[in-house]
Design goal:
The chain is mainly alpha-helical and about 300 residues long. About 55% of the residues lie in helices and about 5% in strands. Strand 1 and strand 2 form a beta hairpin.
Length: about 300
Amino acid sequence: MYEFIDEFIIYLATQKRFSEHTTISYRNDLNATASFILERYEVEELDKISFFHIRSYIVDLMKKGMSAKSVNRKISSLRSFYKYLIKKSHTDINPMLKVVAPKIPKRLPDYVSKIDIAALFDSISLGETYSEARDYIVMIILYNTGIRKSELIGLRDDSIDFAQKRISVIGKGNKQRIIPVTEDLLSKVKEYIEIRNQNFAEKKPSLLRTDKGRSMYPKLVYNIVNKILVKMATNTKKSPHILRHTFATHLANNGAELNTIKELLGHSSLAATQIYTHNSIQKLKDVYSRSHPKAEY
């Protein structure tokens, strides 16, 4: 099985053009499955792996307390793997056909309230140093566009269309989407670029850089957002994705159409966006309970 895993990962990287992070996740999921089946049942040959072995692996994961979301990701990796194997005629046995993914309990996305987000942006500015300017730009771009951490890192100077007032983003599956932005955000980005160019003479296409002028990386983005949110917001989570949830929730609460939010977020289906309507409905309930004279009944 292991030699086919290597072949599949190469296919994902070269043909599907998946990111390194994604291919590593696939490899880890598949290697973990193969190791479990080998250690538990001493089965390694591809054609001898059955639904029983896969089901046993999934049950073991859930007994160890793995969340349904994480288990489903592993199931998705296995399904993609077997779909590839059959396409390439490496096997005609697909043990994934009978696998039923566990249901994921609905959970409302955490977000920063309007009051807290206003206070947050009142407390930070472009500042006088490059790191202050970059941290500020990271925050306003994430909140004003709802883009993902990886999409933020991938922004280039030419991703910003100052004339058309929009940002071009390369999202999941290498898909491009266009996000309209405000004149105020563009003005701040221009100021940031001037500060950046004063600090780093070497020209690079990346919009954002580290304090030493190198390419940004995920952990740095997380640290920037966490450092600022921990001072202001009361949310338990303080990650870049919270600003994405905040962007979408504030749009929904202000009456934005679900399809519009879907396009801005780059979701492949409306189902992924519908969770933000729950927060909007909850807001209506809160207003009703505070305002209607008969709400107490």
